[in-house]
Amino acid sequence: MVQKYQSPVRVYKQPFELVMAAYQKRFPTCDMIPVFVGSDILNEEESEDKATYTVERRCKLNVNAPYILKRVAGCEYVYFVQKNALNRRERTLNISAFNESFSSRVVVKENCEYSVHPDNSDWTCFEQSATLEVKSFFGFENMVEKIAIKQYTANIKKGKEIIEHFLTELQNQGVTHIPTWCEQNPHLMVESTEEGPVDAKDETETEEGENSLSRTGSTGDAHSSNERIRGADANLDEDYIEHNLGMLNPIEESTLIQLRIWLSDTHNGKIPRDEHILRFLRSRDFSMEKTREILCQSLSWRKQHQIDRLLDSYVPCETLQQYYLGGWHHHDHEGRPVYVLKLGQMDTKGVLKALGEEKILRHILCIMEEGLKRCQELSAEQKKPMW
C-alpha cells in the first residue's frame, strides 16, 4: 500500500531571497537535524545570467531504527538523492528527492516547493508532498513503514523551526535584505520586455494562478491572509488550520487535505466546510476510507433534505414558538454558544402529538445549524476554533 503525505501551505513572513539564504545554511550538514549526517554534490549547473541554478546532492541519513533491522539490512546509513532547481527570476525553488538505498524494496519520493506568497511579495510559501511504498524488506515491512512515517513526521514540523532559526541568525548578522534577481539585473529585464508583448492568455493564467491560494484578503494583511477559507482547488495554510481548526499533527493535516482534494474531484468542486470534514475525520480516528463512506452518506442526506438552505427558508410555526421552551443564552466559560432547553417545563408529548415528529425534527435541525453558524462566527471573531 502506498502511503501519501500532503502538507498544508507553510508561510514564512520573510522575502524569498532571505528564505533561500536560510535554506542554504542547512548544507552540507545541519546540527539541528540529527539524522542528516552529511551531503555531497553530484552535479551543479548555473545559467550564464545566474537566473537558474540546479544542484544534485547525495544525502547521508542515520535513520533511528532498531539494531536488529540495521543488522538484517546490512548497513548503518541510508542514502537519498536530492535535486534542487532554483529559479531566481521567477523566485521559485523546486525540490525533488528519492531514496537510493534499497530502492528495489522501498520507494520514497518527495517533492517540495518554495514560492512567493500570492498576496504579499515579501512573504514566502512552502508546500511539501511525499509517497512511501514498502514492497518487501526481509519480513520487516510493517516495521519499516512505521519507522519511516514516524521519522518523516517528526522532521516535518522541525523543518520550519530550522528555517526560522537561520532567518534569525541572518538578522543577527545584519542581513535583513537581499536584492531580487530582477533588482540586480534590470538590464536583462528590459531586454526580456523588449522581446515582445505578454500574451493575454498567459497573463490571465498567471492572474488565476495567483488567486488560487486565496479568495479573499488584502495584500500585507497577515490576519486576512491566514484566516481566509480557500476554494476546493487550493491547499490550506498552516496558520489557517491552527486558528480555525485547532492544532493537528502532520498526519492529521495531511489526511484533511487529501480528503478535501478527493471530495473536490468527486463532487464537482463542491465540498463542505473544513470544520465539517474535520468532525467526521475525528469521529473515525482519521481513517480516510471510513470517513469517506460516512461523510458521503451525510452529504447525500443533507442534499436530499436541503439542510444547507434551512436557515434561510425555515420559519417555526406558532405552536413551536409558544410551547417549545428553548433558546440561545450567552456562552460557556470557553466562549462557545449555549442553548438552553427547558424539557422539564415543556409538554413534550403534547407538542409531539400536535405537530408530529417531522416538524419537530426539522426545528431541531435548524437549531443545530444555527449553532454551527454561531460557532463559525465566533471562531472568526476570537481568532481560534470555537467547536
Task: Give a structural overview.
- The protein is of the alpha+beta class and 387 residues long.
- It is 45% helix and 21% strand.
- The chain contains 15 helices and ten strands.
- It has helices at residues 16-24, 67-73, 141-172, 181-184, 186-194, 200-211, 222-227, 238-244, 250-266, 274-283, 288-304, 310-313, 318-323, 348-355, 357-382; strands spanning 2-6, 10-12, 36-46, 52-61, 78-87, 92-99, 106-116, 124-134, 326-331, 337-341.
- Strands 1, 2, 3, 4, 5, 6, 7 and 8 form an eight-stranded antiparallel β-sheet that branches. A two-stranded antiparallel ribbon has the order 9-10.
- Helix 1 packs across helix 3, helix 9 (250-266) packs across helix 10 (274-283) and helix 14 (348-355) packs across helix 15.
- The two termini are 34 Å apart.
- The model is unreliable at 197-230 (pLDDT under 50).
Order of helices and strands: EEHEEHEEEEHHHHHHHHHHHEEHH
* DSSP strand tally: 10
| Largest pleated sheet | 8 strands, antiparallel
Note the gap between the termini.
34 Å
Rg, please? Answer: 26 Å
pLDDT averaged residue by residue: 85
Class of secondary structure makeup: alpha+beta
Multimeric organization: single chain
**Which spans of ≥5 residues are poorly predicted at pLDDT below 50?**
197-230
Using the alpha-carbon principal axes, give the shape: elongated
The share of residues in helices is: 40-55%
Specify the number of helices. Answer: 15
